[in-house]
């Protein structure tokens, strides 16, 4: 379908290609937070912000912000953005597309001589991906006063996080006092990082209803070490056999729950065996489950099932299984209901077919949503691949998403004005 979009697809492609070129040699597309290449990428982004007429600054949390002042002082801030850092060996579009599209929205407004009543801020959030300090979403947590103070002393490679934030222009000494009551609404565009939209021939845009909560659960299975050659098969207390069955059962339980309304997934991503010797019956297995749920009750039900199931497995396999321990437990973050409707109207304005869906991955939007109305949209990516050198999204799809954000910003400027009148 040919569409007359309010944004310039060529400028979007040019910026994404330019950022893709800033990568470690032989490692597409590696530009990790706090590295010299990251700062080089930021310099490019800042230059594009300024060329779009934006006033640039680095806030206390190390976020790069481009501001377009609104016509009415004190009306509030409409914020768009994502992140420009990558994981190692992957991330040509992950985050980058959202930053570039946000800049393009600002350019498109200027092209049309449109003046908003609200301030518009474009943000490149610092270190959304897991950084060299082992933590993520540093910029969005820091902007909103949600960065744990203890994180600032996390150290690696001879420096701590506080020093690293200062090196990119932030002010770690005042991070705990950060507060942004001026944010009237936040929107983020991102590639889906999954195959749903690409496989859905009926829809172009995913309107994200919630970012799934993430619960990580450790389970320890203990058996008895014995000689692998002399111990009869029916006389063993094999921790690995019981753990292997548990992994399969977790997979099947998650698959069944995933067929009900609301996103749900559970993965055993860490698995350690002791003594890990070929001629010894395994005596201990430690496994870590990564569970993700759009609906909190689904996670609670899964945990209840797991507590009961390990008791049955322990009896069946003659092992000991400690009660599953929740190592971390974050609740789902729903999108703002009003902004979901705004995005649906914007899709209809530009002729983008759309569907509601949850995000199984975490994003900066989840932290902004804790202090202000926030929502996000997905555009398709090839085969759902992400965090990989093969990550790809079609520029036409990204441009369509940019057009949706443009219309949503126009809508927000009017509707938020009415609410505040």
Automatic annotation (TrEMBL):
| MF (Gene Ontology) | hydrolase activity, acting on carbon-nitrogen (but not peptide) bonds, in linear amidines; metal ion binding
Where does the record place the Peptidase M20 dimerisation domain?
211-314
The record's listing under Pfam families reads: M20_dimer, Peptidase_M20
Zinc found in the keyword field: yes
Alphabetically sorted, this entry's keywords are: Hydrolase, Metal-binding, Zinc
Q: Which cofactor does it need?
A: Zn(2+)
Xref: InterPro entries:
Amidase_Cbmase, ArgE/DapE_CS, Bact_exopeptidase_dim_dom, Peptidase_M20, Peptidase_M20_dimer
- Give me the residues that bind Zn(2+) 2, please: 94, 129, 387
Task: Specify which residues bind Zn(2+) 1 according to the UniProt entry for this protein.
Answer: 83, 94, 190
Zinc as a keyword of this entry, yes or no, is yes
Q: How is the cofactor bound?
A: Binds 2 Zn(2+) ions per subunit.
Can you tell which superkingdom this protein's organism belongs to? Answer: Bacteria
Q: What is the similarity comment for this entry?
A: Belongs to the peptidase M20 family.
Q: What is this protein called?
A: Zn-dependent hydrolase
Organism, scientific name: Rhizobium altiplani
């Amino acid at each position: 379908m040919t569409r007359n979009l309010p944004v310039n697809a060529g400028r979007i492609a040019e910026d994404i290609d330019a950022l893709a070129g800033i990568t470690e040699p032989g490692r597409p597309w590696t530009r990790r937070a706090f590295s010299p290449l990251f700062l080089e990428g930021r310099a490019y982004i800042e230059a594009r912000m300024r060329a779009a007429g934006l006033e640039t600054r680095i806030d206390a949390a190390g976020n790069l912000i481009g501001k377009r002042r609104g016509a009415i002082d004190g009306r509030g801030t409409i914020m768009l953005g994502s992140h420009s850092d990558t994981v190692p060996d992957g991330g040509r579009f992950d985050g980058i597309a959202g930053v570039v599209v946000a800049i393009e929205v600002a350019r498109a407004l200027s092209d049309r001589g449109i003046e908003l009543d609200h301030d518009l801020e474009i943000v490149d959030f610092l270190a959304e991906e897991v950084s060299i300090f082992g933590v993520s979403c540093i910029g969005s947590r820091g902007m909103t006063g949600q960065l744990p103070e203890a994180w600032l002393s996390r150290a690696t490679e001879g420096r701590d996080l506080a020093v690293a934030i200062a090196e990119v222009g932030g002010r770690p000494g005042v991070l705990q006092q950060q507060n942004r009551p001026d944010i009237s609404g936040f929107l983020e565009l991102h590639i889906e990082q999954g195959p749903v939209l690409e496989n859905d021939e009926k829809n172009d845009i995913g309107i994200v209803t919630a970012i799934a909560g993430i619960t990580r659960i450790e389970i320890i299975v203990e058996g008895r070490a014995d000689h692998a050659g002399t111990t009869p098969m029916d006389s063993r207390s094999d921790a690995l056999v019981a753990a292997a069955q548990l992994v399969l059962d977790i997979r099947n339980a998650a698959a069944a729950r995933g067929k009900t309304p609301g996103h749900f997934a559970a993965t055993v991503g860490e698995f350690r065996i002791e003594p890990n010797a070929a001629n010894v019956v395994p005596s201990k297995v430690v496994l870590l489950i990564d569970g993700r749920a759009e609906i909190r009750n689904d996670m609670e039900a899964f945990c209840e099932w797991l507590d009961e199931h390990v008791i049955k497995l322990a009896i069946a396999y003659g092992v000991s299984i400690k009660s599953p321990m929740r190592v971390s437990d974050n609740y789902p973050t729903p999108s703002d209901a009003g902004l979901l409707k705004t995005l649906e109207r914007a899709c209809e304005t530009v002729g983008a077919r759309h569907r509601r869906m949850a995000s199984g991955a975490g994003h900066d939007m989840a932290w902004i949503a804790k202090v202000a109305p926030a929502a996000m949209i997905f555009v398709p990516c090839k085969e759902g691949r992400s965090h990989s050198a093969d990550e790809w999204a079609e520029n036409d799809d990204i441009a369509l998403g940019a057009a949706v954000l443009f219309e949503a910003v126009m809508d927000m400027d009017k509707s938020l004005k009415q609410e505040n009148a």
